[in-house]
Amino acid sequence: MSNEQRKIKHTRRFDLESVDYVPPVSGTGPLDYAIPWVMELRIVGTASVLQVQVRESMVIGRGDQSTSKPDIDLEPYHAYDLGVSRKHAMIYARNSRVTVRDLHSSNGTFINDGRLEPDKDYRLRHGDTLAFGKLKFQVFFVITPSSHEKYDTAFHEVVIPKVGNGQKVLIVEGDHHVANALGSVLDQAGFVTSWADNVTKAIMLFDEIQPFATLTEIMLEDRSGLELVSYIRSHAQHKTSPIIVVSGTTGGYQMGQAMEAGADVFLTKPIGIDELVRSFSKILTTQDK
C-alpha cells in the first residue's frame, strides 16, 4: 500500500463520528422515543430497497434455520456470500440521532468505507453508505424527529403541539411504515387521519370523507400523486382545500410541477416532524383569515 493510500484510509477513519451511549429514560426524552425514525436502505448497484422503521434498537444480520432471525434479516440479499454475520450490528434511535454499533462481526461494519470499532456507537447520517461485510447500502432518512437532520446541525428537543381540532387529513403514501409514522404525528397534533396507498384509492376515499387537507407522496404505485392534486383542484368546492406534496427529490423542477398542479406546500424527504406540524399550523392560520 502506498503512502497516499494509507493517508486516504486514515482520513476516512477519522471522518466517523463516535458517540457516547446514554440509555433512554422511560417516559421522558426527545420525540424519537414516541415517533419512529423511518429510513430506506438502498442496496448499492441494485434496485432493492429496505424500508426500516427504527424505534429504540434493532439487530441486523442474517437468519438461518438454526438461529432466531434478527430484526432486520439480510439473508434474502445473499448475506452469507457477502460476509454478513448472524448478529452483525445494532441500529439505535435515541438521543435525537440514529447510531450503529458493530457486534464483533467477522467481516466488519463500515460507514463511508471507514471500519467501525466493535461495541462503539457511530452516528448514521442521511446519504451515508453503510456496509455489513461486502453488502453495501446507501442510507436515506424518510422521517426524522427534527428537520435539523437535513442541515447537519445540532438537534433541539422536539415536542408535538396540538394545533388541530379534529380536522380530517387524508394521507396518500405507498409505504405503510411511512404512513403510520405520519399518521401518528398528525393524530397527536390534533387531526384525524385516513390512509390510501395509491391514487385510485385516494380519489375514492377523498370523495367519501371530504378531508380538510391532503398529504400526498408524488411517487405512488399506480399513478403520480400530482394527478390526485389535479383531481382535487378540478372541483370548485375544493379549490382552496389544503394540499401538501411530499417527494424524495430535492430538484426545483418537481417542486415547480407540484405548485403548478395546485399544491400549497412542498416538503422534501427526510421530513422533519417539526416542519410537518409547522406546515399544518400555517395552513390552519391561513384558512382562518
In angstroms, what is the radius of gyration? 21 Å
Taken as a percent bin, the fraction of beta residues is: 25-35%
Number of self-contained structural domains: 2
Using DSSP, what is the number of strands?
18
Uncertain spans, ≥5 residues at pLDDT below 50?
A: 1-14, 21-34, 150-157
Structural class: alpha/beta
What is the string of SSEs from the N terminus onward?
HEEEEEEEEEEEEHEHEHEHEHEEH
CATH superfamily caption of the largest domain: Response regulator
What would you call the shape? elongated
Stated plainly, the CATH topology of the largest domain is called Rossmann fold
Q: Summarize the biggest pleated sheet.
A: 7 strands, mixed
The CATH class assignment of the largest domain is: Alpha Beta
The end-to-end distance, rounded to whole angstroms, is 68 Å
Helicity, as a percent range: 25-40%
Tally of contiguous helical segments: 7
Provide structural commentary.
- By secondary structure, this protein is α/β, with parallel strands linked by helices.
- It folds into 2 domains: 35-141, Tumour Suppressor Smad4; 166-286, Rossmann fold (3-Layer(aba) Sandwich), CATH 3.40.50.
- It is 26% helix and 29% strand.
- Strands 2, 3, 8, 9, 11, 12 and 18 form a 7-stranded mixed beta sheet that branches. It has a 6-stranded mixed beta sheet with strand order 1-10-7-6-4-5, with no helix packed on it. Strands 14-13-15-16-17 form a 5-stranded parallel beta sheet, with helices on both faces.
- Strand 15, helix 5 and strand 16 form a beta-alpha-beta unit.
- The protein starts with a helix and ends with a helix.
